[in-house]
């Protein structure tokens, strides 16, 4: 672990208060007496940004002029969360801020709460990217995060009176956004469409239309590293924003068509792509940000050079492709090198292959992007030609390796009809990594087996991690203080494996009781948060049981809600005695993709189970269910520290890694889960006796698929499951409407691809073990302490150090 020293305090509290006053007067146009909390937030943010600026400029200069290779992290998502508290912590200004705003007549919490969280990610993929760029800066590694500044983000989730998800625009840029600096002088031109012609024996792409990619720079301060990296998000602008002639003819829509067409590219994250137009927009987005980013990197590392030696490009920067979204960057760099700088094919290919690496985040075939060749040919005709030639070269290489014709056909990057982006990324880069040990092994053994057989040296593993700054230090100050007290130092914040020093304290009853008191305080705080934000009345004297993650069938929110329904039925019919009932509050949080019918129906079911259960006097104080709307980082930072039992119940072999499981363990929740993703490694590290394991293994799942899976057999075999599904089918949670959930019930009983029903009995059975332990608070919290103590491995700092060693082969700036 790199040694990190704290910088000297940059200002006193009084000086920082003066800086906020200056920003209020000259940026906000108000005095401190006139200011609102929102005014003070913007002023404080600008003051913090000013403190970071010198370190940012120094880091940029050292990045360009030094001998350390930089990292370019290409990602369609960066789920950053609110920035003020994190920037204050990493800059060493938290105490000064607290005292300064108090001197101005405000409470720090009110200022922090005035910040609006940007929705620039959908879930784990985007949050991982945010954790990684935090760790890169904290370790002093020069890096650029490259993505898109979506005007409306993913979407803001609401629920209608029937419990259905309603997607609304997330107007996160409606008010002043003080963190991003728009730099119109460093824009890039990105083109689409048109045709490829031959001129003087060379291929020339003549695009039909172009957009202006304007960078918006966000400062990424490292924790006590005195380094500040850059998150550069691109926003799309038109070169021909306004047709005055059309406007003067009262053709108002025609007057702004070019502007609308361009700006649609950076409007929302993941436009619904069930239509051709939606697919076009997605591909436009992907090409837009990678093309702008590659050109930007050339500008940064070869300033003022008309004919730079781009054979040195892989020595300047290495690009990590975060999933398949940026993979169009491979043919784009080839095009840049050949068409714009005149390199021959072999030289360009050598540079390109050394420049890129690919992180595969999934084992699900539908998530490994495959583009229609016709669409690429229409939008990016030169790139399709390059992809065809890459595929020809690939086929020749496989033949030389002795790969048989049928296998080579299965491995084709370009099939004539489509382009397989994961295959292009695997062949076109230096390394491929999975994100947990099990996932990486399954990539090699199943998903990309042929590639692993042909190119075994390309494949490696980097288990994901989370930043302890945001998800322990900021999210859980009570636990952070207790950890520091227990270890006698706060250096664990930048060296998380120091948490192992807490292991002996798990046997110290007084320490465990202090730990329990912290958890109780966090539960109390969340009760207030939920009341303020959602109007909910929550009983803090119940077990807090949480399942928060993206809504997908393989993650099996259905398994959890069926178990809740089963428990509800048992309480109602007296199957379980009053003395045996463990009071429990179950929290769900999840967004479903707008076009994902069954996922949205599952959300509706959860909401309506909540409505029935929470209004039934027979179960009051015994069971409550809440589907919290618009799950985001703010909610996570409040709910995770309060959670006692975490649900990681995906079907074995389907979750790549997960990072929520890491956040919960680090915050002292016990996990009930399958042997899937990083659950495997968490269980190994925290101890099998401190993890509630249930369900089939990957091998058992595969065998059941092979033997022929009949979900109805499990429905008939377990009366608890049968009763739960019958209640759903019978209209108990739909005002008597037996058809409301018919598609969901039919899927469970006839398909159930992710085997919710097969694992139900094991899941329901383990609840008795969970409840028995929970009734012994000292032992429960002893195990919770051991979860914290043994989860230090799951720091994103460790993940980045693995990338540095195994893939990027670079390190911190001197």
Automatic annotation (TrEMBL):
Function according to Swiss-Prot or TrEMBL: Allosteric enzyme that catalyzes the rate-limiting step in glycogen catabolism, the phosphorolytic cleavage of glycogen to produce glucose-1-phosphate, and plays a central role in maintaining cellular and organismal glucose homeostasis. Phosphorylase is an important allosteric enzyme in carbohydrate metabolism. Enzymes from different sources differ in their regulatory mechanisms and in their natural substrates. However, all known phosphorylases share catalytic and structural properties.
An example Gene Ontology CC term for this record: cytoplasm
Enzyme Commission number(s) from the entry: 2.4.1.1
Top-level taxonomic group: Bacteria
Catalytic activity: [(1->4)-alpha-D-glucosyl](n) + phosphate = [(1->4)-alpha-D-glucosyl](n-1) + alpha-D-glucose 1-phosphate
GO molecular function terms noted in the UniProt entry: glycogen phosphorylase activity; pyridoxal phosphate binding
Organism: Bifidobacterium aerophilum
Pfam families: Phosphorylase (PF00343)
Keywords: Carbohydrate metabolism, Glycosyltransferase, Pyridoxal phosphate, Transferase
Cofactor dependence: pyridoxal 5'-phosphate
Keyword field contains Transmembrane: no
Family of this protein: Belongs to the glycogen phosphorylase family.
Protein's UniProt name: Alpha-1,4 glucan phosphorylase
GO biological process: glycogen catabolic process
CDD domains to which the protein is assigned, alphabetical: GT35_Glycogen_Phosphorylase
Sequence positions bearing N6-(pyridoxal phosphate)lysine: 663
InterPro entries found in the cross-reference section: Glycg_phsphrylas (IPR011833), Glyco_trans_35 (IPR000811), Pyridoxal_P_attach_site (IPR035090)
